[in-house]
Specification:
Layout lengths: L2 E3 L2 E3 L3 E13 L5 E14 L3 H4 L9 H14 L6 H15 L3 E11 L1 E6 L2 E9 L3 E9 L4 E14 L24 E11 L13 H18 L11 H15 L3 E7 L2 E6 L1 E4 L3 E4 L5 E9 L2 E5 L6
Antiparallel strand pairs: 1-2, 3-4, 4-5, 5-8, 6-7, 8-9, 9-10, 10-11, 11-16, 12-15, 13-14
InterPro entries: Uricase, Uricase_CS
Subcellular location: Peroxisome
Keywords: Oxidoreductase, Peroxisome, Purine metabolism
């Protein structure tokens, strides 16, 4: 919301970033659960006086925001999803402080995964995984909600069933056409839920944590295809579209999907020598490189989405 200040349009927000918090839950049967979250908070509030009149009386201190993260984590006596914690925080700031009319909470979850020893899940042992669960929650004082979840660093690779043909060729083109190549990417995905108010989100415990796992399974399954025969990819663009479309078709409470899928190149290696000429490798030895790499991204949403 813009304010008129000294003849100018003025917009402002303030918050606290990179608040790291870990929460352990211990069940009565001895099994432990842990999450580690990196929390960023941004408040839109009526505190213009702090900027133009040196009056801090309407400011929620960023140190207070940090302490609130720890206090609210302590209050969560039952295990909950990162989305539910973000909603809880945002709802607190918009309801507890009269000056705050919108709260934006972004959280990245570190991927601690339970380990198995001798084929048995360990009660309190964890290892660090790879991809990260993300969320962004925007809550207004009215209770209006925008809820987005996502995944970062989802590394996928298949050694065949990929090609790239029929693209524009001109005097700058050196890339050969092929129907046989490695397809590798590191997916950054985000999906917007259709829930429009805090009161409308599912009350089922860990609903969003389960949906996150389900979406990851759908993204990877669409990328790879069936275990035996796989699925052919004519381009990263085509595979990206199929992945996004499958998510929307599978989950009716998701209104849009955004995917970023860099094309991480595996270049076939051919060696030349004075004695033997060219030694050509047949799709078995490659030079992996991500500098430079192709950059492909798109957003797919339903017609009725209000995004």
């Amino acid at each position: 919301m813009a304010n008129k200040v000294d003849g100018f349009n003025f917009e402002q927000r303030h918050g606290k970033a990179r608040v790291r918090v870990a929460r352990v839950w211990r069940n009565r049967d001895g099994r432990h659960f842990i999450v580690e979250w990196n929390v960023s908070i941004s408040l839109l509030s009526n505190c213009v006086a702090a900027y133009d009149r040196d009056d801090n009386s309407d400011i929620v201190a960023t140190d207070t925001m940090k302490n609130t993260v720890y206090a609210k984590a302590k209050e969560c006596t039952e295990q909950l999803s990162v989305e539910d914690f973000a909603v809880l925080l945002a709802k607190h700031f918009t309801s507890y402080y009269q000056q705050v009319y919108t709260a934006i909470v972004k959280i990245v979850e570190k991927p601690w995964e339970r380990i198995s020893v001798d084929g048995q899940p360990h009660e309190h042992g964890f290892k660090l995984g790879s991809e990260r669960h993300t969320t962004e929650v925007i809550v207004e004082k009215s209770g209006a909600l925008k809820l987005t979840s996502g995944v970062e660093g989802l590394a996928l690779l298949k050694t065949t069933k990929s090609g790239f043909e029929g693209f524009i060729r001109d005097k700058y083109t050196a890339l050969p056409e092929t129907r046989e190549r490695i397809l590798a990417t590191e997916v950054t995905a985000s999906w917007r839920y259709s829930y429009e108010s805090v009161s409308s989100i599912p009350q089922k415990p860990l609903y969003f944590a389960e949906r996150y796992l389900d979406v990851k399974i759908v993204l990877a399954g669409t990328f790879f295809g069936p275990p035996k025969e796989g699925v052919y990819s004519p381009s990263v663009q085509s595979t990206l579209f199929q992945m996004a479309k499958t998510v929307l078709n599978r989950f009716p409470d998701i209104s849009s999907v955004q995917l970023k899928m860099p094309n991480l190149h595996f270049l076939p290696v051919n060696l030349s020598s004075k004695n033997n000429g060219i030694v050509k490798f047949e799709d078995d030895v490659y030079l992996p490189t991500d500098e430079p790499h192709g950059s492909i991204e798109a957003n797919l949403s339903r017609f009725w989405s209000k995004l």
